[in-house]
Task: inverse folding
C-alpha cells in the first residue's frame, strides 16, 4: 500500500513537490485555500500578475522532476541577457548578466502556476483539494491528522471543517505558513522574521501601440533585458510578458510611499524620476496604480530545523521567505524539491533519515541566499550607477572569461550554476573579492600615475581580452 502525503499549498513549489512525490509512488493530496486559479476570470487573474525571473536552479529542478514537463511549462519564457539601466534623461545602458551570453528568463507567475496545475491532472495518484485551508495538524506516532476549514467556490465563506489522516505532510504554504506554525508547537524550531523597509507596487507597461520592428513588433523597449530605473534608495523595474506588455514594479521605503499622499505629488515624483517610464506607462495610469494597487510588504523568514522527525517538512517560502532582489525565491524553492528528492532517493525512502539529512545539508544554503538577496537591493538600486562598481564588474567579467571555471562572478554562480550550492558561491566570492579590490587599486594607480595614455592603453588591452 503506497504511503500517503498531504502537500499544503498549490503554489509554484507545492505543485512541483506534488509531481515529484507522485513519481515516487506516494499517494498525494494537494490542498490550497484558494479556489482553482484556472477557473478565475481573466480580469481577476490580472489584478496581480507578478512575472518572475526563472534561472538555472529553477530550470534544473523542473528538468530533474520531469524533462518533458519542464519544456511544456517553460514554453512562454522570454530570455533576458542583462540589465538595461535607465537614467533620468531617458538614456539606456545595457549590462550583461553572463560571461558568455547566459540568460535569466521572464515568465508570468499565473501562467507557470496554471501550467503546473494542468500537469498534475495526468497523475491518478494526485488529488487536488481547493477551498481547504489548513488550520491544525495533530502529529501522531502513526498518522498526521490535518484539519481544514473549507469553503465552496460558489457560496460565501462557510465554517465547515474536514479532517484527513496522512503518513506525512509537506508544507509549501508560503511565507505565513500554517504548517510551520503547527510544527513550532511540537519541536524547538529556531525562527526569525524580519520586515525590510521597502514597499512594492505593481505597474503595467502596455504592448507597443505602433509596430516596433526593433523589438519584434510588439514591445516598446527591449524584451530581452530586465529594465531598471535605479534611483539610489528606490527604483522601478520591468520584465517583459509574452503579449508585448511589461510588468513593472516600484520598490521604495514606506516613508517615501506614504509621503506621496496626493495625485499632484505622485505625478511630480514620476515625471522627475522616471520620465521615459511615464511615456511607456502613461502618467494617469502610473498615478492610478500608485494610488490603487496593493502596497506589498517584503519580509525574510529564517528557521531551523525544517522538519518534524519523518512526519512533516517545509519547503519554499514556508521555510525561507526572502526579498525578491536576486530573483531566487521560487528558484530556490524549486531547488528544495530537487535536493529533498535526491536525498529521499539516496535513503531509499527512509523519511526520518532523509529529513534529518535535508535540514543538515540545506540550512547553510538557505541562510546564504536570504543574505545575498538582501544585499542585492543596494546593487540594483544604487551600485549599478557607480563607476567603481562598474570597473570592478568589468574586471570580474574579464577574469571570468579568461580564466573560465577558475574565476566565477557571484551572479554567474547564483543564477547560472545550479551545481554550485549558495553557501559555496559566497565562499568563492569572498576569496575573489579580495583579489578584485587589489586589482582595482592597481588599475586606479596605473591610470592616475600614467595619465590618460596609460588609461587608454589599459582600456584597449581590457577590450581585447574580452
Ligand atoms: C515582488 C516579488 C517578485 C518576485 N520575483 C521573483 C523572481 O523573479 N524569481 C524568483 O525565483 N522568485 C521571485 N519572487 C519570490 C517568489 O514569488 C516566491 O519565492 C514563490 O512564490 C514561493 O513559492 P511557494 O510555492 O513556496 O509559496 P507561494 O507562492 O506563497 O504559495 C503558497 C500557496 O499556499 C497556499 N496556502 C497558504 N496558506 C495555506 C493554508 N493554511 N492552507 C492551504 N493553503 C495555503 C496559498 O494559497 C498559495 O497557493 C518574487 C516575490 C515577490 C513578492
Result:
Amino acid at each position: 500500500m503506497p504511503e500517503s502525503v498531504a502537500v499544503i499549498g498549490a503554489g509554484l513549489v507545492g505543485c512541483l513537490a506534488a509531481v515529484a512525490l507522485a513519481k515516487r509512488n506516494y499517494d498525494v493530496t494537494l490542498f490550497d485555500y484558494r479556489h482553482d486559479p484556472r477557473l478565475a476570470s481573466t480580469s481577476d487573474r490580472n489584478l496581480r500578475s507578478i512575472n518572475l525571473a526563472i534561472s538555472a536552479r529553477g530550470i534544473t529542478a523542473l528538468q530533474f522532476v520531469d524533462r518533458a514537463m519542464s519544456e511544456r511549462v517553460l514554453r512562454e519564457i522570454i530570455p533576458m541577457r542583462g540589465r538595461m539601466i535607465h537614467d533620468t534623461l531617458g538614456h539606456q545602458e545595457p549590462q550583461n548578466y553572463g560571461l558568455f551570453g547566459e540568460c535569466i528568463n521572464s515568465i508570468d507567475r499565473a501562467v507557470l502556476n496554471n501550467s503546473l496545475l494542468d500537469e498534475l491532472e495526468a497523475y491518478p495518484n494526485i488529488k487536488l483539494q481547493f477551498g481547504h485551508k489548513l488550520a491544525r495538524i495533530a502529529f501522531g506516532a502513526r498518522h498526521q491528522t490535518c484539519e481544514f476549514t473549507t469553503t465552496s467556490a460558489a457560496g460565501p465563506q462557510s465554517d465547515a471543517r474536514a479532517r484527513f489522516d496522512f503518513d506525512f505532510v509537506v508544507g509549501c504554504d508560503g511565507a505565513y505558513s500554517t504548517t510551520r506554525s503547527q510544527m513550532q508547537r511540537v519541536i524547538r524550531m529556531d525562527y526569525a522574521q524580519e520586515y525590510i523597509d521597502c514597499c512594492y507596487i505593481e505597474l503595467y507597461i502596455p504592448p507597443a501601440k505602433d509596430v516596433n520592428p526593433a523589438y519584434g513588433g510588439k514591445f516598446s523597449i527591449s524584451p530581452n533585458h530586465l529594465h531598471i530605473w535605479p534611483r539610489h534608495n528606490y527604483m522601478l523595474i520591468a520584465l517583459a510578458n509574452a503579449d508585448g506588455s511589461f510588468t513593472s514594479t516600484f520598490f521604495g521605503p514606506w516613508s517615501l510611499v506614504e509621503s506621496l499622499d496626493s495625485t499632484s505629488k505622485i505625478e511630480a515624483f514620476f515625471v522627475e524620476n522616471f520620465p521615459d517610464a511615464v511615456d511607456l506607462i502613461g502618467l494617469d495610469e502610473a498615478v492610478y496604480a500608485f494610488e490603487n494597487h496593493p502596497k506589498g510588504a517584503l519580509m525574510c523568514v529564517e528557521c531551523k530545523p525544517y522538519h518534524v522527525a519523518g512526519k512533516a517538512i517545509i519547503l519554499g517560502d514556508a521555510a525561507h521567505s526572502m526579498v525578491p532582489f536576486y530573483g531566487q525565491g521560487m528558484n530556490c524553492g524549486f531547488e528544495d524539491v530537487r535536493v529533498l528528492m535526491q536525498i529521499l532517493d539516496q535513503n531509499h525512502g527512509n523519511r526520518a533519515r532523509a529529513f534529518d539529512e535535508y535540514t543538515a545539508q540545506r540550512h547553510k544554503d538557505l541562510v546564504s541566499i536570504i543574505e545575498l538577496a538582501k544585499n542585492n537591493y543596494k546593487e540594483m538600486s544604487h551600485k549599478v550607477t557607480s563607476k567603481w562598481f562598474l570597473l570592478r564588474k568589468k574586471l570580474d567579467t574579464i577574469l571570468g572569461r579568461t580564466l573560465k571555471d577558475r574565476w566565477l562572478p557571484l551572479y554567474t554562480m547564483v543564477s547560472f550554476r545550479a551545481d554550485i550550492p549558495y553557501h559555496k558561491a559566497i565562499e568563492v566570492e569572498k576569496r575573489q573579492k579580495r583579489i578584485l579590490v587589489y586589482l582595482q587599486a592597481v588599475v586606479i594607480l596605473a591610470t592616475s600615475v600614467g595619465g590618460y595614455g596609460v588609461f587608454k592603453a589599459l582600456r584597449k588591452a581590457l577590450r581585447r581580452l574580452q
